Amino acid sequence: MTEQIDWPRLRAAATEAMRHAYVPYSKFPVGAAGLVDDGRVVVGCNVENAAYGVVLCAECGVVSSLHVTGGGRIVALSCVDATGEPLMPCGRCRQLLWENGGPDTLIESRTRPLRMAELLPHAFGVEDLEAIVADPVVPTVPERLAAWRGRGTVFVHPDVTDGRQVWTAYWERSAGDEGVGAGVLEEGPTWSTADEAVTWGEARTPRVVVVDADGTMFWAGEGEAPAEIPRRWAGS
Ligand SMILES: O=c1ccn([C@H]2C[C@H](O)[C@@H](CO)O2)c(=O)[nH]1
């Protein structure tokens, strides 16, 4: 991945963003540009405030722009100071970048790109919450699919992984929506129970269908079972 990153382009985008910084107090403009896993480049600049402590770092802008333009993960980031030279993200921003990129995200430095795992070793993250709170704490629907929420159908079915019986699911866009072409929106992970797969489905659409090993369909969605799938899933 490192070879594919156009660092000069990323640095140029960060430098351009830096020129828009609002820094009447520190006079220290910062710009940042993040490469997203789908190829987008999202930028931000620092924005200060008369209440000094509420300053927004350039990286905050990057993260906001990441979400507002469709989400995804930041794979590489360049942050620059007024001279256009790489600036290391502050501690708080490292935490933000950790959640929106992760340990493998690369950060430009004056020497070589550094992995987030190097910048924030032993990081606190969402896994620490999930270790205590049973349910996933981060919304499970990827942002790029947010507009599909409530539409389509999730099909839950058994599968075999490494010789183990598991359950999996996929979110299909056509079913239940007139005039929408066929196509899988998202493949689910695997679970040991069908109910976990149904929960994954419920986060996406009210239409959830379990297809058991014999190919029999059961309605596991909201409301009355539709005529074509009269049997209701009783749980696994
Ligand atoms: O990673 C950093 C470090 C600092 N700043 C900003 C905050 C403030 O406006 C100015 C001086 O700290 O630089 C950033 O935008 N990103």
UniProtKB/TrEMBL annotation:
Q: Which domain of life is it from?
A: Bacteria
Question: Which stretches make up the CMP/dCMP-type deaminase domain?
Answer: 5-127
The record's listing under CDD domains reads: cytidine_deaminase
Query: What GO molecular function terms would the record report?
Result: cytidine deaminase activity
Presence of the UniProt keyword Nucleotide-binding in the record:
no
Enzyme class, UniProt record, top EC level: hydrolase
Q: Which SUPFAM superfamilies match?
A: Cytidine deaminase-like
- EC number(s) from the headed UniProt entry: 3.5.4.5
Stored InterPro entries: CMP_dCMP_dom (IPR002125), Cyt/Deoxycyt_deaminase (IPR050202), Cytidine_deaminase-like (IPR016193)
Q: Indicate whether Hydrolase appears among the record's keywords.
A: yes
Keywords, alphabetical? Hydrolase
Q: Per its UniProt record, what NCBIfam families does this chain match?
A: PRK05578.1
State the family named in the UniProt similarity comment for this chain.
Belongs to the cytidine and deoxycytidylate deaminase family.
The protein, known as: Cytidine deaminase
Organism, by scientific name, is Micromonospora zhanjiangensis
